[in-house]
Amino acid sequence: MRFPSYVVAAILLTALAGVPAAGAVTAPPTAAARTSSAAPGRLSAVIAFEKNPAHVFRSRLVWRLWRTHDGTRSLVEQRSWRAGSGFTRDSTDPCRRNDGWLPDGRYRPRLHANYWGSLIKGRAIYLGNKACADGTLRTDLFIHTEQGDRSRQCADRPGDQVCRWEYPKINDYRSYGCVKVSPRAMHELFDAWRAHFDLGYDDRVQVRVRG
Fold first, then answer.
1. 36 belongs to a structural domain
2. Whole-angstrom Cα distance, residue 28 to residue 15?
3. Does a structural domain hold residue 35?
4. Which first-to-last residue range defines the signal peptide (predicted)?
């Protein structure tokens, strides 16, 4: 069957209507675009480290996503994971460097997709430095796990390896003051953040630590 020329022209215009012009670049939506396309209101998140003085390796890390709309704040999502902070079971002195758990207070977190440090690698959240109650400065604080480059687990070898999660054979919830979680928890926390917010610093995300 042959169509009249004006019908062929209409079909071609319809087909080409959604095609970008030659040389045009289509970028994936940013986190801000994903947020604005969702329900009305402003999203924000709080990552809370809730300390357990009875057992520092059985504390909790809690993700809470909030939406504020027309002056009303409502909880959208909540997730939590086991977390540890401190080097021994009784490391509850936040002013003791390389031993005590994280000092209380608020932190401005920075999300990394593949942090490359001497000990910390892969997905991680940098918290910065924090002075405890007596003024002692705790430095290079993170939320992290034990893994290698690109969040991969290295081969199992004798002894404690910083590139491999070995709990319960080795207590990998132990830290020098950072917050430690399992690789699965770190992955889930990373995904929860990235579902709504950008990598790096995002003023809509806070970390709060409380005893």
1. no
2. 22
3. no
4. 1-24
Q: Which of 76, 43, 78 is nearest to 64 (CA)?
A: 78
Q: How many structural domains is the chain composed of? A: 1
- Tens of pLDDT, residue by residue over 31-73, are 444 544 458 899 999 999 999 999 999 999 999 999 999 999 9
Q: pLDDT tens for residues 87-127?
A: 998 899 999 999 999 999 999 999 999 999 999 999 999 99
| pTM, two decimal places | 0.81
Cα distance between residue 197 and residue 195, in whole Å: 6
Report DSSP letters for 10-70, one per residue.
HHHHHHHTTSPPTT---PPPPHHHHHHTSSSSEEEEEEEEE--TT-GGGEEEEEEEEEEET
Please provide residue 124's backbone torsions phi and psi, each rounded to the nearest 5 degrees: -160, 160
Q: Whole domain around residue 168: which residue ranges?
A: 41-210
Query: Helix (H, G, I), strand (E, B), or coil: what is residue 130?
Result: strand
Tokens encoding 59: 């504390």
- Does 124 map to a domain? yes
